[in-house]
Amino acid sequence: MIVFLFHDFFWPEKALATFAQADKVVVIKSKRLMMLLQNGEILKTYRIALGKQPLGHKIHEGDQKTPEGTYILNSRNPKSKYHLSITISYPNESDILNAQKRGMSPGGSIMIHGLSEDLANLEKLHRALDWTNGCIAVTNSEIEEIWQLIPDGTPIEIKP
Asked: Are 146 and 54 in contact (CB under 8 A)?
């Protein structure tokens, strides 16, 4: 256990070539991992925090779940409350229909983002708990790197 904590929280991470670009992102919620892929090969892996209710697919606004499925990373906010953020195209048509069947809103504003000012000092320790409202959170230095590695329009697959 001590080795795990040492490695995950303090081990230096390898730097990537500045020209590297991901062409797909895969999130495995159960492992709290996000992988950036290039031509099917793992370019970089990040440990993540998820929504406060991490099990299952997001069904409606306010359920604090991170969605599952295939989406697109479609826009960016350089002035995000969470340092930087990249928007995930949730909800899709199926998400909207499923929420409407329940008489609810599917919600939205699901992103990959960094840490707010009040959490920034936690760095990698923020991953000890799932704390977002459904987003995927990384450290501020990680979102800066991800920002450079992921072009708009990149598909993201979020798996249970």
From this structure: no
